Amino acid sequence: MTVRRGQGYTLRVSTVPAVHRQLLDRCHPLDGTPGAPAIPAQRKARREYENRVNVLAADIEC
What we know:
Blueprint: H1 17-27, H2 40-61
């Protein structure tokens, strides 16, 4: 798999926070699994997405 550095692609999903949580669960292996090392750019992208989802969920709860 090739990971592009710099300006990347963003997938925009307009839906409820529960669906975003499911997407995060599915991309959790990007953090690295035994036998499949994590690529730092993938780890960072997933972490930033998780932060955005957490902020979104907090805004909805308020």
